[in-house]
Amino acid sequence: MASQNGVSARQITLSHITKTFPGVIANDDVTLTLNVGEVHAILGENGAGKTSLMNVLYGIYHPDQGQILLDGKPVRIDSPKDAIRLGVGLVPQHPMLVRAHTVEENIALSQVTHGGASFWNPTSNIRRRIVELSGRYGLKVDPKAPVWQLSAGEQQRVEILKVLLQGARFLILDEPTSVLTPQEVQELFAVLRRMRQDHGMVIITHKLDEVLDISDQITVLRKGKVTGNTKNENLKKTDLARMMIGEELKETRVAGHPHLRGEMIHLSDAWAMGERGTPALKGVSLSVQGGEILGVAGVAGNGQLELIEVLTGLRPLTRGHIFVKGKDMKGQNAEAFFQSGIAHVPEDRNHYGIVPNMTVEENLILRAMNQNPYSKAGIMDFAAIREHARQNIQKYDIRTPTADTRARLLSGGNVQKLILARELESNPDVLVAAHPTYGLDIGATTQVHQLLLEKRAQGMGIVLVSEDLDELMNLSDRIVVIFAGTFTGTLTRAEFQREKLGLMMAGEA
Protein backbone atom coordinates (compact mmCIF):
# COMPACT_ATOMS: atom_id res chain seq x y z
CA MET A 1 0.00 0.00 0.00
CA ALA A 2 1.21 3.45 -0.83
CA SER A 3 1.90 5.88 1.94
CA GLN A 4 1.17 9.42 0.83
CA ASN A 5 -0.26 12.73 1.88
CA GLY A 6 -3.68 13.70 0.57
CA VAL A 7 -3.15 17.48 0.61
CA SER A 8 -2.47 17.64 -3.15
CA ALA A 9 -4.67 14.70 -4.19
CA ARG A 10 -7.38 15.25 -6.80
CA GLN A 11 -9.42 12.06 -6.46
CA ILE A 12 -10.30 9.41 -3.90
CA THR A 13 -12.09 6.19 -4.85
CA LEU A 14 -13.85 3.52 -2.84
CA SER A 15 -13.37 0.54 -5.15
CA HIS A 16 -15.58 -2.58 -4.96
CA ILE A 17 -16.20 -2.14 -1.23
CA THR A 18 -18.02 -4.92 0.61
CA LYS A 19 -18.76 -4.60 4.32
CA THR A 20 -20.78 -7.14 6.28
CA PHE A 21 -22.10 -7.42 9.81
CA PRO A 22 -23.70 -10.53 11.34
CA GLY A 23 -26.67 -11.31 9.11
CA VAL A 24 -26.40 -8.05 7.15
CA ILE A 25 -24.54 -7.00 4.00
CA ALA A 26 -24.16 -3.25 4.58
CA ASN A 27 -22.19 -2.56 1.39
CA ASP A 28 -22.19 -4.95 -1.55
CA ASP A 29 -19.45 -4.33 -4.15
CA VAL A 30 -19.84 -0.54 -4.00
CA THR A 31 -17.64 1.74 -6.09
CA LEU A 32 -17.73 5.51 -5.57
CA THR A 33 -15.33 8.21 -6.77
CA LEU A 34 -15.01 11.66 -5.21
CA ASN A 35 -13.20 14.34 -7.19
CA VAL A 36 -11.87 17.73 -6.16
CA GLY A 37 -14.14 20.28 -7.79
CA GLU A 38 -17.44 18.53 -7.12
CA VAL A 39 -20.12 18.01 -4.48
CA HIS A 40 -21.18 14.37 -4.49
CA ALA A 41 -24.51 13.52 -2.84
CA ILE A 42 -25.25 10.04 -1.48
CA LEU A 43 -28.93 9.13 -1.26
CA GLY A 44 -30.68 6.05 0.01
CA GLU A 45 -33.29 4.76 2.41
CA ASN A 46 -32.40 3.93 6.01
CA GLY A 47 -30.27 0.81 6.01
CA ALA A 48 -29.16 1.36 2.41
CA GLY A 49 -25.49 1.49 3.44
CA LYS A 50 -24.71 5.22 3.26
CA THR A 51 -23.29 5.60 6.76
CA SER A 52 -21.30 2.36 6.71
CA LEU A 53 -19.70 3.37 3.41
CA MET A 54 -18.63 6.73 4.83
CA ASN A 55 -17.37 4.98 7.96
CA VAL A 56 -15.11 2.93 5.68
CA LEU A 57 -13.82 6.11 4.04
CA TYR A 58 -13.17 7.73 7.42
CA GLY A 59 -11.43 4.69 8.91
CA ILE A 60 -14.08 3.75 11.47
CA TYR A 61 -14.78 0.47 9.64
CA HIS A 62 -12.39 -1.65 7.59
CA PRO A 63 -13.89 -3.23 4.46
CA ASP A 64 -14.12 -7.01 4.11
CA GLN A 65 -13.33 -6.65 0.41
CA GLY A 66 -12.23 -3.86 -1.88
CA GLN A 67 -9.76 -1.03 -1.52
CA ILE A 68 -9.39 2.73 -1.31
CA LEU A 69 -7.43 4.56 -4.01
CA LEU A 70 -5.93 8.03 -3.69
CA ASP A 71 -5.16 9.41 -7.15
CA GLY A 72 -5.24 5.82 -8.37
CA LYS A 73 -2.79 4.46 -5.76
CA PRO A 74 -3.98 2.03 -3.05
CA VAL A 75 -3.97 3.41 0.50
CA ARG A 76 -4.99 1.89 3.81
CA ILE A 77 -7.27 3.79 6.19
CA ASP A 78 -7.53 1.96 9.52
CA SER A 79 -8.55 4.88 11.72
CA PRO A 80 -9.80 8.48 11.56
CA LYS A 81 -6.19 9.53 12.19
CA ASP A 82 -5.18 7.75 8.97
CA ALA A 83 -8.07 9.42 7.14
CA ILE A 84 -7.06 12.88 8.35
CA ARG A 85 -3.43 12.24 7.36
CA LEU A 86 -4.63 11.37 3.86
CA GLY A 87 -6.78 14.48 3.59
CA VAL A 88 -10.22 13.11 4.53
CA GLY A 89 -12.23 15.12 7.08
CA LEU A 90 -15.63 14.58 8.70
CA VAL A 91 -18.08 17.40 9.52
CA PRO A 92 -20.48 15.80 12.04
CA GLN A 93 -24.24 16.24 11.93
CA HIS A 94 -24.25 17.74 15.43
CA PRO A 95 -21.31 20.03 16.33
CA MET A 96 -18.83 18.45 18.75
CA LEU A 97 -17.42 21.59 20.35
CA VAL A 98 -16.50 22.63 23.90
CA ARG A 99 -19.13 25.27 24.55
CA ALA A 100 -17.17 27.05 27.29
CA HIS A 101 -14.15 27.67 25.03
CA THR A 102 -13.70 30.11 22.17
CA VAL A 103 -13.68 29.30 18.47
CA GLU A 104 -9.88 29.45 18.22
CA GLU A 105 -9.46 27.32 21.36
CA ASN A 106 -11.75 24.64 19.95
CA ILE A 107 -9.87 24.64 16.66
CA ALA A 108 -6.53 24.52 18.47
CA LEU A 109 -7.76 21.56 20.52
CA SER A 110 -8.56 19.68 17.31
CA GLN A 111 -5.01 20.28 16.05
CA VAL A 112 -3.17 18.97 19.14
CA THR A 113 -3.13 15.33 18.04
CA HIS A 114 -2.31 16.24 14.45
CA GLY A 115 0.92 18.15 14.88
CA GLY A 116 -0.68 21.57 15.27
CA ALA A 117 -0.33 24.31 17.86
CA SER A 118 -0.63 23.80 21.58
CA PHE A 119 -4.19 24.12 22.90
CA TRP A 120 -3.02 26.49 25.58
CA ASN A 121 -1.21 28.76 23.13
CA PRO A 122 -3.28 29.00 19.92
CA THR A 123 -2.22 32.64 19.40
CA SER A 124 -1.24 34.11 16.10
CA ASN A 125 -0.79 31.14 13.75
CA ILE A 126 -4.20 29.53 14.24
CA ARG A 127 -5.95 32.88 14.44
CA ARG A 128 -4.27 33.94 11.19
CA ARG A 129 -5.33 30.71 9.47
CA ILE A 130 -8.92 31.09 10.71
CA VAL A 131 -9.10 34.61 9.31
CA GLU A 132 -7.48 33.50 6.04
CA LEU A 133 -9.82 30.54 5.46
CA SER A 134 -12.87 32.49 6.64
CA GLY A 135 -12.16 35.16 4.05
CA ARG A 136 -11.42 32.72 1.25
CA TYR A 137 -14.56 30.61 1.65
CA GLY A 138 -17.01 32.95 3.38
CA LEU A 139 -16.88 31.10 6.71
CA LYS A 140 -17.83 34.13 8.78
CA VAL A 141 -16.91 33.49 12.42
CA ASP A 142 -15.21 35.44 15.21
CA PRO A 143 -12.13 33.50 16.45
CA LYS A 144 -12.50 35.00 19.94
CA ALA A 145 -16.22 34.25 20.35
CA PRO A 146 -17.25 31.64 22.96
CA VAL A 147 -18.98 28.69 21.29
CA TRP A 148 -22.05 28.94 23.53
CA GLN A 149 -22.84 32.31 21.93
CA LEU A 150 -22.85 30.92 18.38
CA SER A 151 -25.87 29.89 16.30
CA ALA A 152 -26.13 26.38 14.87
CA GLY A 153 -24.89 27.66 11.51
CA GLU A 154 -21.88 29.38 13.07
CA GLN A 155 -20.97 26.24 15.04
CA GLN A 156 -21.09 24.26 11.82
CA ARG A 157 -18.65 26.73 10.23
CA VAL A 158 -16.28 26.08 13.13
CA GLU A 159 -16.48 22.34 12.42
CA ILE A 160 -15.65 23.00 8.76
CA LEU A 161 -12.72 25.20 9.77
CA LYS A 162 -11.47 22.43 12.08
CA VAL A 163 -11.18 19.91 9.25
CA LEU A 164 -9.74 22.47 6.84
CA LEU A 165 -6.98 23.33 9.30
CA GLN A 166 -6.28 19.60 9.63
CA GLY A 167 -5.50 19.64 5.90
CA ALA A 168 -8.70 18.03 4.61
CA ARG A 169 -8.93 17.80 0.84
CA PHE A 170 -12.07 15.66 0.88
CA LEU A 171 -14.93 16.46 3.28
CA ILE A 172 -17.75 14.18 4.45
CA LEU A 173 -20.82 16.16 5.53
CA ASP A 174 -23.45 14.12 7.40
CA GLU A 175 -26.98 15.63 7.18
CA PRO A 176 -25.40 19.12 7.20
CA THR A 177 -28.66 21.11 7.04
CA SER A 178 -30.66 19.26 9.70
CA VAL A 179 -30.48 22.05 12.34
CA LEU A 180 -30.18 25.12 10.09
CA THR A 181 -32.66 27.85 9.18
CA PRO A 182 -33.39 28.29 5.44
CA GLN A 183 -31.09 31.32 5.38
CA GLU A 184 -28.30 29.32 7.05
CA VAL A 185 -28.79 26.52 4.50
CA GLN A 186 -28.22 28.95 1.65
CA GLU A 187 -25.19 30.42 3.46
CA LEU A 188 -23.77 26.89 3.84
CA PHE A 189 -24.33 26.14 0.16
CA ALA A 190 -22.57 29.39 -0.78
CA VAL A 191 -19.59 28.23 1.33
CA LEU A 192 -19.57 24.79 -0.32
CA ARG A 193 -19.65 26.33 -3.79
CA ARG A 194 -16.58 28.42 -2.93
CA MET A 195 -14.80 25.43 -1.40
CA ARG A 196 -15.55 23.23 -4.39
CA GLN A 197 -12.65 24.67 -6.41
CA ASP A 198 -10.12 23.32 -3.88
CA HIS A 199 -11.96 20.35 -2.36
CA GLY A 200 -14.17 17.37 -3.02
CA MET A 201 -17.23 17.03 -0.80
CA VAL A 202 -19.63 14.18 -0.18
CA ILE A 203 -23.02 14.93 1.41
CA ILE A 204 -25.32 12.40 3.08
CA THR A 205 -28.89 13.70 3.13
CA HIS A 206 -32.57 12.78 2.77
CA LYS A 207 -33.58 16.19 1.38
CA LEU A 208 -34.08 15.84 -2.36
CA ASP A 209 -34.54 19.55 -3.07
CA GLU A 210 -31.16 20.28 -1.48
CA VAL A 211 -29.49 17.49 -3.46
CA LEU A 212 -30.75 19.04 -6.68
CA ASP A 213 -29.62 22.49 -5.51
CA ILE A 214 -26.03 21.79 -4.46
CA SER A 215 -24.73 18.51 -5.92
CA ASP A 216 -22.76 17.86 -9.10
CA GLN A 217 -22.84 14.08 -8.89
CA ILE A 218 -25.40 11.79 -7.24
CA THR A 219 -25.01 8.18 -6.13
CA VAL A 220 -28.03 6.22 -4.91
CA LEU A 221 -27.73 3.15 -2.68
CA ARG A 222 -30.44 0.56 -2.12
CA LYS A 223 -29.95 -2.46 0.15
CA GLY A 224 -26.18 -1.99 0.07
CA LYS A 225 -25.86 -1.78 -3.71
CA VAL A 226 -25.42 1.17 -6.08
CA THR A 227 -28.70 1.54 -8.00
CA GLY A 228 -27.89 4.85 -9.63
CA ASN A 229 -24.94 7.09 -10.36
CA THR A 230 -25.57 10.19 -12.40
CA LYS A 231 -24.62 13.78 -13.01
CA ASN A 232 -27.07 16.35 -11.67
CA GLU A 233 -28.40 17.41 -15.06
CA ASN A 234 -32.13 18.00 -15.71
CA LEU A 235 -33.13 15.75 -12.82
CA LYS A 236 -36.35 15.99 -10.81
CA LYS A 237 -37.26 14.76 -7.34
CA THR A 238 -39.32 12.00 -8.90
CA ASP A 239 -36.22 10.71 -10.70
CA LEU A 240 -34.27 10.51 -7.45
CA ALA A 241 -37.16 8.88 -5.57
CA ARG A 242 -37.51 6.23 -8.25
CA MET A 243 -33.82 5.35 -7.92
CA MET A 244 -34.07 5.31 -4.10
CA ILE A 245 -37.23 3.28 -3.54
CA GLY A 246 -38.03 1.83 -6.94
CA GLU A 247 -41.31 3.72 -7.36
CA GLU A 248 -42.71 7.20 -7.90
CA LEU A 249 -42.55 9.78 -5.12
CA LYS A 250 -45.96 10.29 -3.50
CA GLU A 251 -45.79 13.78 -2.07
CA THR A 252 -48.28 14.34 0.74
CA ARG A 253 -49.81 17.69 1.58
CA VAL A 254 -52.89 19.16 3.23
CA ALA A 255 -55.92 19.36 0.92
CA GLY A 256 -58.76 21.78 1.53
CA HIS A 257 -59.77 23.68 4.63
CA PRO A 258 -59.78 21.87 7.97
CA HIS A 259 -63.12 20.76 9.41
CA LEU A 260 -62.66 22.09 12.93
CA ARG A 261 -64.50 20.47 15.82
CA GLY A 262 -63.73 22.73 18.71
CA GLU A 263 -60.78 23.72 20.86
CA MET A 264 -58.91 20.77 22.33
CA ILE A 265 -55.96 22.54 24.01
CA HIS A 266 -55.71 26.11 25.21
CA LEU A 267 -52.34 27.30 26.54
CA SER A 268 -52.40 30.71 28.21
CA ASP A 269 -49.39 32.85 29.25
CA ALA A 270 -47.35 29.70 29.86
CA TRP A 271 -43.98 29.84 31.58
CA ALA A 272 -41.75 26.82 32.24
CA MET A 273 -38.20 26.28 33.42
CA GLY A 274 -35.52 24.53 31.36
CA GLU A 275 -32.92 22.03 32.51
CA ARG A 276 -30.51 24.80 33.53
CA GLY A 277 -32.99 26.42 35.90
CA THR A 278 -33.72 29.38 33.61
CA PRO A 279 -37.02 30.09 31.81
CA ALA A 280 -37.36 28.01 28.63
CA LEU A 281 -40.93 29.12 27.85
CA LYS A 282 -41.74 32.78 28.42
CA GLY A 283 -45.41 33.62 28.37
CA VAL A 284 -46.51 31.63 25.31
CA SER A 285 -50.15 31.11 24.34
CA LEU A 286 -51.69 28.85 21.71
CA SER A 287 -54.87 27.03 20.75
CA VAL A 288 -55.17 23.59 19.14
CA GLN A 289 -58.41 22.76 17.34
CA GLY A 290 -59.72 19.30 16.55
CA GLY A 291 -59.30 18.62 12.83
CA GLU A 292 -56.23 20.79 12.25
CA ILE A 293 -52.48 20.32 12.14
CA LEU A 294 -50.67 23.06 14.05
CA GLY A 295 -47.02 23.17 13.03
CA VAL A 296 -44.30 24.39 15.39
CA ALA A 297 -41.19 25.69 13.60
CA GLY A 298 -37.88 26.70 15.13
CA VAL A 299 -34.19 25.95 15.32
CA ALA A 300 -33.38 23.25 17.90
CA GLY A 301 -32.98 24.46 21.47
CA ASN A 302 -35.42 27.36 21.41
CA GLY A 303 -38.03 25.85 23.73
CA GLN A 304 -39.61 23.15 21.57
CA LEU A 305 -38.77 20.35 24.01
CA GLU A 306 -40.24 22.24 26.95
CA LEU A 307 -43.37 23.12 24.94
CA ILE A 308 -43.88 19.46 24.03
CA GLU A 309 -43.47 18.41 27.66
CA VAL A 310 -45.90 21.07 28.89
CA LEU A 311 -48.51 19.94 26.34
CA THR A 312 -48.17 16.31 27.46
CA GLY A 313 -47.92 16.83 31.23
CA LEU A 314 -44.24 15.94 31.48
CA ARG A 315 -43.12 19.42 32.61
CA PRO A 316 -44.97 21.67 35.07
CA LEU A 317 -45.89 25.27 34.39
CA THR A 318 -44.41 27.87 36.71
CA ARG A 319 -46.97 30.43 35.54
CA GLY A 320 -50.01 30.42 33.29
CA HIS A 321 -52.59 27.74 32.53
CA ILE A 322 -53.22 24.82 30.22
CA PHE A 323 -56.75 23.67 29.48
CA VAL A 324 -57.67 20.37 27.78
CA LYS A 325 -61.25 20.41 26.46
CA GLY A 326 -62.00 23.20 28.91
CA LYS A 327 -60.51 21.50 31.98
CA ASP A 328 -57.62 23.22 33.78
CA MET A 329 -54.77 20.67 33.77
CA LYS A 330 -52.14 22.75 35.57
CA GLY A 331 -50.32 20.55 38.06
CA GLN A 332 -51.57 17.29 36.51
CA ASN A 333 -49.16 14.51 35.51
CA ALA A 334 -48.61 12.83 32.14
CA GLU A 335 -51.06 10.00 32.89
CA ALA A 336 -53.82 12.53 33.59
CA PHE A 337 -53.08 14.24 30.28
CA PHE A 338 -53.25 10.89 28.47
CA GLN A 339 -56.55 10.04 30.13
CA SER A 340 -57.83 13.44 28.99
CA GLY A 341 -57.09 12.55 25.37
CA ILE A 342 -53.50 13.70 24.72
CA ALA A 343 -51.20 11.21 22.97
CA HIS A 344 -47.48 11.74 22.44
CA VAL A 345 -44.88 10.69 19.87
CA PRO A 346 -41.57 11.65 21.55
CA GLU A 347 -38.53 13.05 19.78
CA ASP A 348 -36.19 10.31 21.04
CA ARG A 349 -38.15 7.29 19.86
CA ASN A 350 -35.74 4.65 21.11
CA HIS A 351 -35.32 5.94 24.66
CA TYR A 352 -38.76 7.38 25.38
CA GLY A 353 -41.10 5.83 22.81
CA ILE A 354 -40.50 2.11 23.32
CA VAL A 355 -39.09 -0.37 25.81
CA PRO A 356 -36.32 -1.72 23.55
CA ASN A 357 -36.06 -5.20 25.08
CA MET A 358 -39.80 -5.82 25.08
CA THR A 359 -41.41 -7.39 22.03
CA VAL A 360 -43.40 -5.59 19.37
CA GLU A 361 -46.67 -6.98 20.75
CA GLU A 362 -45.78 -5.94 24.30
CA ASN A 363 -44.87 -2.40 23.21
CA LEU A 364 -48.18 -2.10 21.36
CA ILE A 365 -50.16 -2.53 24.61
CA LEU A 366 -47.97 -0.49 26.98
CA ARG A 367 -50.80 2.04 27.40
CA ALA A 368 -53.39 -0.67 28.10
CA MET A 369 -51.49 -3.62 29.55
CA ASN A 370 -53.68 -3.81 32.67
CA GLN A 371 -56.96 -3.22 30.86
CA ASN A 372 -59.58 -5.46 29.31
CA PRO A 373 -59.27 -7.39 26.98
CA TYR A 374 -55.51 -7.79 27.53
CA SER A 375 -55.73 -8.42 31.26
CA LYS A 376 -58.62 -10.06 33.09
CA ALA A 377 -58.60 -10.40 36.87
CA GLY A 378 -54.85 -9.80 36.80
CA ILE A 379 -54.20 -12.56 34.26
CA MET A 380 -52.78 -11.66 30.86
CA ASP A 381 -54.82 -12.80 27.86
CA PHE A 382 -52.04 -13.62 25.41
CA ALA A 383 -54.42 -14.57 22.62
CA ALA A 384 -56.00 -11.09 22.75
CA ILE A 385 -52.55 -9.47 22.88
CA ARG A 386 -51.38 -11.47 19.87
CA GLU A 387 -54.52 -10.63 17.87
CA HIS A 388 -54.15 -6.93 18.71
CA ALA A 389 -50.55 -7.06 17.49
CA ARG A 390 -51.51 -8.87 14.28
CA GLN A 391 -54.15 -6.27 13.43
CA ASN A 392 -51.89 -3.29 14.11
CA ILE A 393 -48.84 -4.72 12.35
CA GLN A 394 -51.04 -5.06 9.26
CA LYS A 395 -52.92 -1.76 9.67
CA TYR A 396 -49.81 0.38 10.21
CA ASP A 397 -47.47 -1.64 7.96
CA ILE A 398 -44.99 -2.39 10.76
CA ARG A 399 -42.33 -4.50 9.08
CA THR A 400 -41.15 -6.98 11.68
CA PRO A 401 -40.16 -10.66 11.37
CA THR A 402 -42.71 -11.61 14.05
CA ALA A 403 -44.79 -10.02 16.80
CA ASP A 404 -42.28 -11.55 19.25
CA THR A 405 -39.35 -9.61 17.79
CA ARG A 406 -37.63 -7.25 20.24
CA ALA A 407 -38.50 -3.66 19.41
CA ARG A 408 -34.83 -2.63 19.44
CA LEU A 409 -34.24 -4.78 16.35
CA LEU A 410 -36.64 -2.76 14.18
CA SER A 411 -35.54 0.00 11.81
CA GLY A 412 -36.18 3.60 12.81
CA GLY A 413 -39.17 3.86 10.50
CA ASN A 414 -40.79 0.74 11.89
CA VAL A 415 -40.18 1.82 15.48
CA GLN A 416 -41.94 5.09 14.62
CA LYS A 417 -44.89 3.25 13.10
CA LEU A 418 -45.10 1.06 16.21
CA ILE A 419 -45.27 4.16 18.43
CA LEU A 420 -47.87 5.80 16.19
CA ALA A 421 -49.96 2.63 16.22
CA ARG A 422 -49.95 2.45 20.02
CA GLU A 423 -50.71 6.14 20.52
CA LEU A 424 -53.37 6.41 17.82
CA GLU A 425 -55.18 3.23 18.82
CA SER A 426 -55.99 4.94 22.13
CA ASN A 427 -58.30 7.23 20.06
CA PRO A 428 -56.86 10.51 21.37
CA ASP A 429 -58.32 13.94 20.71
CA VAL A 430 -54.84 15.43 20.20
CA LEU A 431 -51.54 13.93 19.05
CA VAL A 432 -48.37 15.81 19.99
CA ALA A 433 -45.81 14.59 17.44
CA ALA A 434 -42.19 15.63 18.00
CA HIS A 435 -40.03 15.34 14.87
CA PRO A 436 -41.99 12.25 13.76
CA THR A 437 -40.01 11.69 10.55
CA TYR A 438 -36.52 12.69 11.73
CA GLY A 439 -33.94 10.28 10.32
CA LEU A 440 -36.54 8.31 8.35
CA ASP A 441 -36.12 7.48 4.68
CA ILE A 442 -38.46 8.82 2.03
CA GLY A 443 -40.72 5.75 2.03
CA ALA A 444 -41.28 5.72 5.80
CA THR A 445 -41.67 9.51 5.83
CA THR A 446 -44.45 9.34 3.24
CA GLN A 447 -46.27 6.68 5.28
CA VAL A 448 -46.12 8.79 8.45
CA HIS A 449 -47.33 11.89 6.58
CA GLN A 450 -50.28 10.01 5.10
CA LEU A 451 -51.22 8.72 8.54
CA LEU A 452 -51.18 12.21 10.07
CA LEU A 453 -53.36 13.58 7.27
CA GLU A 454 -55.85 10.72 7.69
CA LYS A 455 -56.18 11.48 11.40
CA ARG A 456 -56.63 15.19 10.68
CA ALA A 457 -59.46 14.34 8.29
CA GLN A 458 -61.07 12.24 11.04
CA GLY A 459 -61.12 15.25 13.39
CA MET A 460 -57.98 14.74 15.47
CA GLY A 461 -55.95 17.77 16.50
CA ILE A 462 -52.24 17.38 15.77
CA VAL A 463 -49.32 19.43 17.08
CA LEU A 464 -46.45 18.81 14.65
CA VAL A 465 -43.04 19.93 15.95
CA SER A 466 -40.40 19.77 13.23
CA GLU A 467 -37.22 21.42 11.96
CA ASP A 468 -38.10 20.45 8.37
CA LEU A 469 -39.86 23.42 6.77
CA ASP A 470 -41.00 21.39 3.76
CA GLU A 471 -42.75 18.99 6.11
CA LEU A 472 -44.39 21.80 8.07
CA MET A 473 -45.49 23.74 4.98
CA ASN A 474 -46.93 20.63 3.31
CA LEU A 475 -48.86 19.32 6.31
CA SER A 476 -49.80 22.25 8.54
CA ASP A 477 -52.93 24.39 8.56
CA ARG A 478 -51.15 26.95 10.72
CA ILE A 479 -47.51 27.34 11.78
CA VAL A 480 -46.37 28.99 14.99
CA VAL A 481 -42.68 29.91 15.19
CA ILE A 482 -40.72 29.64 18.44
CA PHE A 483 -37.51 31.54 19.18
CA ALA A 484 -35.74 31.85 22.56
CA GLY A 485 -38.80 30.57 24.40
CA THR A 486 -41.32 32.95 22.84
CA PHE A 487 -43.57 32.82 19.79
CA THR A 488 -42.47 35.23 17.08
CA GLY A 489 -45.66 34.81 15.09
CA THR A 490 -48.32 32.53 13.64
CA LEU A 491 -48.90 32.05 9.91
CA THR A 492 -51.89 30.58 8.08
CA ARG A 493 -51.46 28.46 4.94
CA ALA A 494 -51.99 31.47 2.69
CA GLU A 495 -49.12 33.24 4.46
CA PHE A 496 -46.54 30.42 4.31
CA GLN A 497 -43.27 31.68 2.83
CA ARG A 498 -39.94 29.96 3.40
CA GLU A 499 -38.00 33.22 3.70
CA LYS A 500 -40.50 34.70 6.14
CA LEU A 501 -40.46 31.57 8.29
CA GLY A 502 -36.67 31.54 8.27
CA LEU A 503 -36.48 35.13 9.51
CA MET A 504 -39.00 34.36 12.25
CA MET A 505 -36.96 31.29 13.28
CA ALA A 506 -33.94 33.59 13.67
CA GLY A 507 -35.94 36.06 15.78
CA GLU A 508 -35.84 38.74 13.10
CA ALA A 509 -39.53 39.00 12.22
Automatic annotation (TrEMBL):
SMART domains to which the protein is assigned, alphabetical: AAA
UniProt entry tagged with the keyword Electron transport: no
Keywords (A to Z) from UniProt: ATP-binding, Nucleotide-binding
Ranges where the ABC transporter domain occurs: 12-248, 265-509
Keyword Cell inner membrane in record: no
MF terms in GO: ATP binding; ATP hydrolysis activity
PANTHER family from the UniProt entry: CARBOHYDRATE TRANSPORT ATP-BINDING PROTEIN MG119-RELATED, GUANOSINE IMPORT ATP-BINDING PROTEIN NUPO
Record's protein name: Heme ABC transporter ATP-binding protein
